[in-house]
Amino acid sequence: MGTLKVNQHLVTPENLVELVKICPFNALEDNGGKLEINAGCKMCKICVKRGPAGVMEFVEDEVKKSIDKDLWKGIAVYVDHVDGVIHPVTLELLGKAKELAEKVDYPVYALFLGHGIAGEAEELLHYGADKVFVYDKEELKDFRIEPYTAAFEDFINKIKPSSILVGATTVGRSLAPRIAARFRTGLTADCTVLDIKENTDLIQIRPAFGGNIMAQIKTPNTRPQMATVRYKVMNAIPRNEEVNGEIIICEMEASKLRSNIEVLSVRLKEKEESISDAETIIAIGRGVKSEKDLVMVRELADLLGAQIAGTRPMVESGWLDAKKQIGLSGRTVKPRLIITLGVSGAVQFAAGMNGSDYIFAVNNDEKASIFNVAHYGIVGDLYEVLPELIERIKLAKEA
Ligand SMILES: Cc1cc2nc3c(=O)[nH]c(=O)nc-3n(C[C@H](O)[C@H](O)[C@H](O)COP(=O)(O)OP(=O)(O)OC[C@H]3O[C@@H](n4cnc5c(N)ncnc54)[C@H](O)[C@@H]3O)c2cc1C
């Protein structure tokens, strides 16, 4: 990291005008002949690279003395669960951790915090964990941020994992930043790609600037390296029947598990149908012209046992619930089949569905970007294609 500095003595009326124009974020201002940087600055450094020589300067922060990376080993996965029922994102992360660990010859750890959970720990060994560290304590019965952070901290101090992967669930999104702050280390949220360098630096890739670029983020000077990943972004490995790993029951000072939060009661929310779990999805976009046309879409969805989801404009128009939005600011889905109807395939949408097994797109514009990610496509008016599709599926079902 660093800061941008204006060398005012090199500013002339001519290069001032040039610099103000050069910034794509309008972050450079002419303040009565003085060049100023405003809050819009995204540190893209275009002004340094393309502006008049020397006027804008990037001053690097003093690089922290590097830590001894050899002291930090292993890839750890935080086990997300409710009362021992493990969230599937954990298994997906174990799959990714195994792949990364093999590249640098590291073990895979699972960190399991809770109460009455020890019996469930073995399952994690079937999905790639070499060691499961279990903190089975009454104080960890319900998720409370202070004792969970304390147990997580204890694990890191004792085991020193090089990288930690956390599911971007409600719990994970709350826990991971606390841990990162406590260890003064980096955390990249919602990574879509993870890789590892020979020197064990974790390559964390995620969309940035509204999905217009894929940012590659590293944490070269601190350990542990931390990343959160949403459900359905990575792949779990198939359950391995044989297990060779180890379950380690961990102890820690009880006083560290104290909390100022008292859980009075826990009420389970009614289980909602989530598009992230759907096997088949019909995704609608602005090509669907009127809310009443959803009847036709519903007919197709019912025939295929599909859930209806869509693009952000469909949610903004109030036709779909916010939980049905696919994409960067919505949910990630990975169904076996997704049929998109009148969806342009903007990067922010595609980022949430391009891992689907089969993508079938209907759009009347042959240049629509959805066709770049689709496996099958029909260039045509959805108002002609959809009734025909429904008819053919009905006939096939009757046959
Ligand atoms: C920071 C940020 C985050 C965002 N997050 C998301 C997100 O999570 N999810 C999301 O969806 N968007 C998101 N967006 C918005 C995104 O950029 C697009 O604007 C949006 O996805 C476009 O939705 P659409 O495909 O429904 O509409 P349009 O882009 O308007 O596309 C409509 C398509 O329908 C086709 N069409 C029109 N009529 C017919 C017809 N009769 N038959 C067949 N095809 C037809 C057109 O050719 C066109 O391709 C985000 C934007 C930003 C800046």
Description of the molecule:
Helices cover 27% and strands 24% of the residues. The chain is an alpha/beta fold. The protein has 3 domains: 2-60, Alpha-Beta Plaits; 69-257, 3-Layer(aba) Sandwich (Rossmann fold); 275-398, Rossmann fold, CATH 3.40.50.1220. The strands form 6 sheets. A 7-stranded parallel β-sheet has the order 11-15-10-5-8-9-16, sandwiched between helices. It has a 5-stranded parallel β-sheet with strand order 18-17-19-20-21. Helix 5 (145-159) crosses helix 6 and helix 7 (294-304) runs parallel beside helix 11 (382-398). The longest helix is centred in the first third of the chain and has 17 residues, at 88-104. It is flat and about 65 Å long. The mean pLDDT is 95.
CATH class descriptor name of the largest domain:
Alpha Beta
Compute the number of strand runs: 21
Biggest sheet overview: 7 strands, parallel
Write down the overall mean pLDDT.
Answer: 95
Query: What compounds are bound to the protein?
Result: flavin-adenine dinucleotide
- Total domains, how many? 3
**What radius of gyration results from the CA coordinates?**
25 Å
CATH architecture of the largest domain: 3-Layer(aba) Sandwich
End-to-end gap: 64 Å
Strand order in the largest sheet: 11-15-10-5-8-9-16
Shape: flat
Which range best describes the helical content: under 10%, 10-25%, 25-40%, 40-55%, 55-70% or over 70%? 25-40%
Which class best fits the helix and strand makeup? Answer: alpha/beta
- Secondary structure tally, helices: 11
